[in-house]
């Protein structure tokens, strides 16, 4: 399984931000731009909390197993793999969503900052970007907790042919 790359997530964030900014400008010129939901940063923050709780729980179980505590439960490899896949998928989706809300927020701040309702929408979009960054940070932490010891020493081997 490949590790998360910060460059890929930043690229997804940037492309989604530019496209959503352009789409928001177009939509705003044609009609009224739909609002940013208040639940957007809340949902992203909940996903970040779930990822962080999973990482902390797995880390405690792995530490107890490593220290050979009596009655320590190990981590099932399939559960660990599913947790890593969930973290990676969450990071990719949150980079996309944060980019979209970031682009809309920039449009709202630049063009419509004088309207109080749109200023509130820009604040919600900003909190969504911050919550998306929290999801990405929690996903990286979960991936680091569940990394196998062999993964750190593994280097790409060149073909002898």
Give an overview in words.
The protein is mainly α and 161 residues long. It has helices at 6-30, 39-66, 77-111, 116-145, 149-153. It is elongated, with a radius of gyration of 20 Å. 33% of the residues are buried.
Give the helix/strand layout:
Layout: H1 6-30, H2 39-66, H3 77-111, H4 116-145, H5 149-153
Helix pairs in contact: 1-3, 2-3, 2-4, 3-4
Shape: elongated
Describe the oligomeric state of these chains in a short phrase.
single chain
Helical amount: over 70%
- The sequence of SSEs as H and E is HHHHH
Largest sheet, described in full? none
The portion of residues forming beta strands comes to: under 5%
Computed CA radius of gyration, to the nearest angstrom: 20 Å
Output the structural class. mainly alpha
| Separation, N- and C-terminal Cα atoms | 26 Å
Spans of at least 5 consecutive residues with low confidence? none
The overall pLDDT average reads: 86
Q: How many helical stretches?
A: 5
Number of strands: 0
């Amino acid at each position: 399984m490949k590790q998360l790359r910060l460059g890929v997530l930043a690229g997804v964030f940037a492309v989604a931000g530019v496209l959503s900014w352009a789409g928001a400008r177009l939509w705003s010129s044609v009609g009224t731009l739909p609002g940013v939901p208040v639940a957007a940063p809340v949902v992203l923050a909940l996903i970040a909390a779930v990822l962080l709780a999973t990482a902390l729980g797995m880390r405690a179980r792995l530490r107890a197993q490593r220290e050979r505590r009596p009655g320590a439960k190990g981590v099932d490899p399939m559960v660990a793999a599913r947790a890593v896949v969930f973290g990676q998928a969450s990071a990719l989706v949150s980079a996309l969503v944060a980019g979209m809300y970031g682009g809309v927020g920039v449009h709202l701040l630049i063009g419509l900052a004088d309207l109080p309702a749109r200023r509130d929408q820009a604040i919600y979009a900003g909190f969504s970007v911050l919550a998306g960054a929290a999801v990405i940070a929690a996903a990286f932490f979960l991936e680091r907790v569940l990394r196998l010891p062999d993964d750190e020493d593994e280097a790409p081997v060149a073909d002898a042919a």
